[in-house]
UniProtKB/TrEMBL annotation:
Its EC number is 2.7.6.5. Transmembrane segments: none annotated. One of its GO terms (cellular component) is plasma membrane. Residues 45-144 form the HD domain. It comes from Croceicoccus ponticola. Residues 383-444 form the TGS domain. GO terms for biological process: guanosine tetraphosphate metabolic process; nucleobase-containing small molecule interconversion; response to starvation. SUPFAM superfamilies: ACT-like, HD-domain/PDEase-like, Nucleotidyltransferase, TGS-like. This is GTP pyrophosphokinase rsh. One of its GO terms (molecular function) is GTP diphosphokinase activity. Belongs to the relA/spoT family.
Amino acid sequence: MLRQYELVERVKAYDPDADEALLNRAYVYTVQKHGSQKRASGDPYFSHPIEVAGLMTDLKLDQETIITALLHDTVEDTLATIEDVEKNFGPEVARLVDGVTKLSKIEQMPENERAAENLRKLFLAMSEDLRVLLVKLADRLHNMRTLHFIKNEDKRRRIARETMDIYAPLAERVGMYEYMREMQLLAFEQLEPAAYATITGRLAQIRSQEGGQVDEIALRIKQALAEGGVKVEVSGREKHPFSIWKKMAERHVSFEQITDIMAFRVVTNTPEDCYRALGVLHRTWSMIPGKFKDYISTPKSNGYRSLHTSLVYENSMRVEVQIRNSEMHRTNEFGLAAHWAYKQGGSTPDGQVGWLRDLLEILDTAADAEELLEQTKLAIYQDRIFAFTPKGALYQLPRGATPVDFAFSVHTDLGASAVGCKINGRHMPLRTPLANGDIVEIIKGPDSEPQLGWLSFVVTAKARAAIRRSVRQKEREETARIGQELFDSIVERMNVKIGKKAINGALKRLDMEDETSLMLAIGTAKLTEKDVMEALVPGSGSELPDDSFWQTPARSVRLRGLPKGAEFKLSPCCHPVPGDRIVGIREGRKVEVHSIHCMMLAEQDDKRWIDLSWDQRSDGATGNLRVMLYNRLGTLSEMTGVFAANHANITHLALQTRDDLFGTYEVGIEVRDLAHLTRIISALRASDAVAQADRI
């Protein structure tokens, strides 16, 4: 743990004008506030914020960021308040500390909702000042370094998964590759301990067997470049264990089949030297086609610049080489933080970047915690392609992006009005995946609007958020229209002329702002028929029963995205169960729910689609199976025994065909969710009585 004077000396070394007294006061403040609190490791709790502050000094950040790191847990874990922080250290530090602090109000929320709310607050704070993110990343990195001290395995895995899914990609998006790699390695150790042990063990074995081979190759590369007139520094290492495991999983290969285990970094003096070095290497050794990437002429969205190539070294060994100059190297390792260290004038870092604006748009459109987490992961992952407008403007998109994703990246209005596209001058469907270098022209329609069906193929979070926002607005308008129809029906049966005065009186009695609010409340069944009549003409609804004619009975299956008050049924053509991706087809106030893979959807107008998902409280549905049994004594009993062993009730059983060899049955069974149904199908297929079992 850094001592007080050591921390101050670190800051003064790169910022001689830093307020030494303020830094000392912040150090003492965090020690006093955390007092006798202990971490899982047994160390004093204040050692954690002090180490986080030390990480910030490595990045040479300003004193406000260092103080924020020292104080970042005081509001969450001690009796200190934001007001105390502002009084002692000023409004800027208080704002930064508040941005990093988790919301105390959400501690009782379910896990995914708590994570979503923490992300929501983090992103909003980042929009004002990205230093919040730097402190948060350093906080998470130090917590990951000490994660092994937590005894509860489930808690360790939850923290590791959150780090792998959210914080490591965020570190990559701001170019902090050192943080990203260490987070991934520490999370990988918790999530896949067997794979981690195997790969790190094999790497250690390679090092012991091959001795100084990495150093030998690095020296040979340096000599070849010196002979070519390029002065460089060369370093080499084995590839990151998580990177190796990811490549093994993606390519379905073994460790022995990974040929480019070694990677080398060449650091030159100037950008021009990078290209000269590349030429020398390609003349000296054969390059592997398709493995060259120029991130200097076309940097990544986080500012990363480098040349990447793969070479065939002696004995057919493949090695990866990255070439950059010293300025690129610092930026590549520490991203935006490296830029801020040399920023001239003022201490506030550059705030907004494009991908962060997209995240803020997601905050406004996410319907629930599950959607926010899903769209956040989509927005921050970084497997990218490059596409151009007809005028040559360059846009970076995730791999698999379509022209609709491209249109929303250019401008939300362009995406909303898209009706077609041209890719490289040819008319193509809007669902066509884009390739690197495609020139994309979006064809607009005057009255077009986003279609719900687009959600089945768009991949960017910004596009999904915009489409869902438009769909919800259409649903609101449709709900208001239904409410108006029901209102007119009520008025017609009252046999009383209802004018503007009566409606205004009803709005006042119901404490509503306008007629639209009234129609929405009627359309979503928040108001009964009796409520409406009483509000319009007091006393007129006294003879009606309390329940409304449009209310929907309770059921065990619950859906998200369904207009309130709407009736629904699970389609008999595809029998969706919780866990399936689903959409609804609207017919007035009735909605039929289909699996996204249902063939019947191709015959439906996608303007009638409603984006639906299962509520967590849904406790089952009926799955339909076609089971072919061997035609011998006892097979039917064995099949029903499989259902009983897996706690599934049979709702119907019908013999379809039978011959000397087989009998084919259609079976309906009650299941909890898709996983339950899948286990049952697997158990059927494993039975000697069953020749074939499929879902229908």
